[in-house]
Structures are given as C-alpha cells and as structure tokens.
Amino acid sequence: MPVLVVGGAGYIGSHAAHTLKRRGYEPIIYDNLSTGHAELAKGFELVVGDVADSAKLAAVLKRVDAVMHFAAHAYVGESVVDPRKYFHNNVLGGVALLNAVLDSKVRKLIFSSTCAVYGIPAKLPIREDTPRLPVNPYGDTKLAFEHALEAYGRAYGLRFVSFRYFNAAGADESGGIGELHSPETHLIPSAFEAIKGERPALEIFGEDYPTPDGTCVRDYIHVNDLAEAHVLGLEYLDRGESTAMNLGTGQGHSVREVISSIERITGREVPKRMAPRRPGDPAELVADPSRAEELLRWKAQRSLNQIVSTAWNWASRQGKH
Ligand code: UDP
Predict the structure, then answer these.
(1) Residues 45 and 75 both lie in one domain
(2) Is residue 254 situated within a structural domain?
(3) Which of 7, 38, 179, 313 is in the most buried spot, having the most CB atoms within 10 Å?
(4) What does DSSP assign to residue 287?
(5) Is 303 touching ligand 1 by the criterion CB < 6 Å?
(6) 164-192: per-residue pLDDT in tens?
(7) Helix 94-102 crosses helix 137-156 at what angle (to 10 degrees)?
(8) Which domain holds residue 301?
(9) Number of domains, the chain
C-alpha cells in the first residue's frame, strides 16, 4: 500500500518511512527540506514540495492510500519568540495539507501530535482525557491541528489518529539514519555534543524540581517504537475509527538518570554544569500508554539504554565523512 510521508526527510518521519518499507508498504516522501535532510530520505522516492503547495500535493495524493503528517516546526523555545513561524507552518500549512487530502480520494491520515498539548497536567501518568491546555505556542499549534482533524472527521468522514508523542529519542538500529537538528536542543544529542567537544558542557536545566533527584522527569520513547505504532495505526484506520493516542513507555527517567546511562554506555564523562530551569518545562511528564497498547496491540519495546546506544551509534558516525 502506498503511503505519503509528509515530512519524511525529518527525524521521526524518516524512521517511519524506513519502518513502513520494512513492513511491505510503499512510502513516498514529501518534504520541503527546510529542516529535513535529503540524506535521511536516501533510497526512497522524494518529492520536494511544501505543505501549502496544493497542486503538487494533488498530483502525489492520487498515488497513495494514506497520509502520515510529520512536517512541523518543533522547538518549544523558538515558538515562544517566533509564534508567527509556528502558526504559519504548523496551522496554516497543516490545514492546507488537510484540505488537499480532502480534495483527493484519501481518507486516512496519521498526525504527529505531542504531549505538549496537555501543558502541565494535574495528574500523572497522563491519559488521553486529560484536559488539553498547552503552555506554549508550539503546543497551541499542535492542538489547533488536532481540533481541525476532529472537525473534519465529524463533517467529512476523514479518519485519523493523532499520536501524542512523549520524548522521542534514539536512532534506527542500522546506524543509517538518526536525529539531525540544527541547532540541537534535545537532551541526549546535546550530551553527545558535549562529549565530542562540540559544546563546552551540557547544561542541566534545573535541579530544584519536586522530583526524586531534583531534575525533570520525562518519558523517553525510542523513535522506532513510535514508527512501529504508526504502521499499526494504518491498520487501525482500516477498522473505520478515529482517535488520539499517547505514545510513551509509561516509565519516567530524570535528566540525571539519562546522563548516567549516557556515561555508562559511551564510557565517557559528560561535561556538565547546572543551569537555571528552562521556561515552560513541567517537572514530570509520563504517559499512560494503555489506549495505544489496547487499540494497536503495541507496546514500546526498547529501553532507555537501547535509546542511548542507538543514538550514540548514530552520533559517533556524524562528522566523520
Ligand atoms: N534538558 C537539559 N539540558 C539540555 C536539554 C534538555 O537539562 O541541554 C532537559 C529539559 O529540561 C527536559 C529534558 O531534558 O527536562 C528533555 O528535554 P528535551 O529538550 O530533550 O525534550 P522536551 O522535553 O523539551 O521535549
């Protein structure tokens, strides 16, 4: 079955495309390469185009049965200082894509949403019925797209899954694709940059949180566990239903625990220093993944150590070409 992977030259989209291919689907990557990388799309048909280019989308949508939408800006901090960029791309661009889908015969769409739609939840672990109250423009834009999907679903019979990712991390076991952000802000690749001397030190953003060791707790999920859920999401859509599902492991790890795992696996010390809290960071975010486990018969398989070792395998190959 042919599937259009919009944003498939990015981090999570490229892993989804590889997993689709391994499972016998025929992914076509659609990406404007603004933050994506053609090298992550190597071995796939790549259509270079923007989500707002309805003519280009109309042509390629004729050739597929379903769409996965990964194309979005995804830096929380940047969304605070430049919300225009986020609303433009994630909402206006997203809705343009949605309209192009509606104008085609395709009625199945899988959307990359985020636990940022919940903001600072009152209760942990986070279930899907937790009120959606984002605390930054990034989360606002993802929630706006979720609302559009829900309305289009009710009115036009579009079937969708909004997958709310917790902390995507790790890299494909092949070592051939991985995370490539510029600038890098995420915890694990930032720690590798410190190990490699590409930044003076990893900053630990706050150690006075009400958590066991004072640092923030997050639910880190391997990018290929996410990718596998997307493939199962296509089968779910064939059953004619639509919903939102959390994708996480259900298990939290503190920043210090992640650093310890990195030091153990790489055998190197992470140069680090304490820094103030990062604005907008909740103390703890952990998923209740039971809805996805039940509806998809899926469960995250990979541990924090596997996340770190696959990410290190990828990161230590970068810059050597
Ligand atoms: N973090 C940190 N130093 C960094 C980057 C991240 O201490 O250089 C912390 C951050 O405060 C959060 C966790 O690591 O608690 C995960 O952050 P990341 O940016 O990787 O993902 P996010 O939770 O923002 O999606």
Answers:
(1) yes
(2) yes
(3) 7
(4) B
(5) no
(6) 999 999 999 999 999 988 889 999 999 99
(7) 10
(8) 187-218+250-317
(9) 2
Ligand 1 atom nearest 205 alpha carbon: 7
pLDDT at 319: 65
Q: Which residues are catalytic?
A: 138
pLDDT of 118-128, one tens digit each? 999 999 999 99
Distance 187 CA to ligand 1 centre (A): 5
pLDDT in tens, 87-145: 999 999 999 999 999 999 999 999 999 999 999 999 999 999 999 999 999 999 999 99
Asked whether the beta carbons of 101 and 67 are under 8 A apart, the reply is: yes
Task: Establish if 55 belongs to a structural domain.
Answer: yes
Q: State whether the beta carbon of 136 lies less than 6 angstroms from ligand 1.
A: no
Best residue for ligand 1 mutational test, from 190, 218, 220 (most atoms within 8 Å of Cβ): 218
The rounded distance, in Å, linking the Cα atoms of 259 and 188 is 8
State if residue 203 touches ligand 1 by the CB under 6 angstroms criterion. yes
Q: What is the DSSP pairing of strand 202-205 with strand 167-169?
A: unpaired
**261 CA → ligand 1 middle, Å:** 15
Q: How many CB atoms lie within 10 A of CB 297?
A: 10
